[in-house]
């Protein structure tokens, strides 16, 4: 069969003469056909006409010698004017353009540097543009992390040891700002906590006034915190008070306490006022040595006592001795400037105990007080409180008559209590 005809001749011509330029022209024609078919009124000649496009607010990367200087003032932005054909300026590749300035090799100062572009599509040119760059001397410091807590733990608990991992961070940036850093703070809330608080928290650089310093690089920018929250406790001795007396002519010679110390738990302000815990032992009717299980008296505000009970072993001996003693009465709770007289000024009390205790007793072992707190001028019959050694049994403690006279106006203005 004969190969020929118009199409055959066209194919032979395409293969022989300038095939590549003809292919480019064909593709361009197809592209222009698609542009026209998309509903635009542009003609092929207008699409290929020179044009310009302005891109506003292009971020400019600053290249500089890290560790020597640092760029400050934020990332510069410029407006770029791109030129090319209208078809070139329609290219989606324009979104990949990267703008930068090269400040490497420059020291601290302010510079106007030419903006350079990367990834510019073929056929696009751009108008020269400059960016203002401020460089400052760089500095770097290692700073210990300061752990700070907010809020307060639950009543009876307190913040204990605090630690961060890592314990130090590196702060870098403009030398002037780095030198302002007084602390790097990691903050965590312990409000209502009853157990250790752990977690990863961000760190912040602050100045001597506690104000945050921004624009610095902190590595790492967060740390792992461990804050101990423990029950606030205090170890105090146990004292024993004996009530009443053994049977017949018996007397308490000695006693021992196990344990002799206990741990009290509570708020710090309560614990600061506690220096001992008291157990009361009623020995009335005891006919021989005996061990008592005693529940300790819980002071106001204390959350817990550990242990709650103690063992008191009481040693009883025959030979109870009774002695009368006269004790001066001291007035307490008197308003400042007021005067008080006590009638009688001494009280006679009967004290009983073992023969050895009575023989070793001194007058200073007994004190007597009468409390007039809240009492104004006048005459009152008030009970006397006698303090005696714990082994002693007291009897016949009388009351006394107390006469209070008012302070003078000047003395009353001074306030206070005796």
Automatic annotation (TrEMBL):
One Pfam short name: YbbR
Matches recorded under Gene3D superfamilies: 2.170.120.30, YbbR-like domain (2.170.120.40)
Organism annotation: Kyrpidia spormannii
Name the UniProt record assigns to this protein: YbbR-like domain-containing protein
């Amino acid at each position: 069969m004969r190969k020929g005809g118009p199409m055959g001749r066209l194919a032979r011509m395409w293969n022989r003469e300038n095939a590549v330029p003809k292919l480019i022209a064909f593709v361009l024609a197809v592209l222009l056909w698609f542009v026209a078919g998309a509903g635009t009124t542009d003609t092929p000649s207008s699409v290929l006409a020179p044009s310009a496009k302005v891109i506003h607010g292009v971020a400019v990367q600053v290249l500089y010698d890290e560790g020597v200087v640092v760029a400050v003032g934020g990332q510069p932005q410029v407006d770029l004017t791109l030129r090319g054909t209208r078809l070139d300026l329609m290219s989606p590749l324009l979104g990949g353009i990267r703008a930068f300035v090269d400040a490497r090799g420059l020291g601290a100062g302010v510079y106007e540097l030419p903006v350079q572009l990367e990834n510019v599509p073929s056929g696009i040119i751009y108008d020269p543009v400059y960016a203002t760059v401020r460089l400052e001397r760089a500095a770097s410091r290692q700073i210990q992390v300061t752990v700070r807590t907010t809020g307060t733990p639950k009543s009876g608990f307190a913040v204990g040891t605090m630690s961060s991992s890592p314990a130090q961070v590196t702060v870098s940036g403009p030398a002037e700002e780095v030198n302002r850093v007084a602390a790097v703070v990691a903050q965590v809330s312990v409000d209502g906590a009853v157990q250790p608080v752990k977690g990863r928290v961000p760190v912040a650089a602050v100045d001597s006034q506690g104000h945050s310093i921004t624009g610095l690089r902190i590595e790492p920018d967060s740390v792992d915190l461990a804050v101990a929250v423990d029950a606030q406790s205090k170890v105090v001795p146990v004292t024993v008070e004996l009530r009443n007396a053994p049977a017949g002519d018996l007397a308490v010679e000695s006693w021992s306490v196990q344990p002799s110390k206990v741990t009290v738990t509570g708020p710090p302000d309560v614990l600061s006022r506690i220096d001992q815990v008291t157990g009361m032992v009623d020995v009335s009717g005891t006919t021989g040595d005996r061990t008592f299980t005693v529940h300790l008296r819980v002071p106001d505000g204390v959350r817990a006592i550990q242990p709650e009970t103690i063992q008191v072993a009481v040693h009883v001996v025959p030979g109870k001795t009774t002695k009368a003693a006269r004790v001066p009465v001291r007035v307490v709770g008197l308003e400042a400037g007021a005067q008080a007289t006590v009638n009688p000024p001494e009280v006679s009390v009967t004290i009983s105990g073992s023969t050895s205790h009575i023989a070793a007793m001194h007058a200073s072992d007994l004190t007597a007080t009468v409390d007039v707190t809240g009492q104004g001028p006048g005459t009152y019959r008030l009970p006397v409180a006698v303090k005696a050694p714990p082994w002693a049994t007291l009897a016949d403690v009388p009351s006394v008559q107390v006469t209070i006279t008012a302070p003078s106006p000047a003395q009353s203005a001074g306030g206070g209590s005796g």
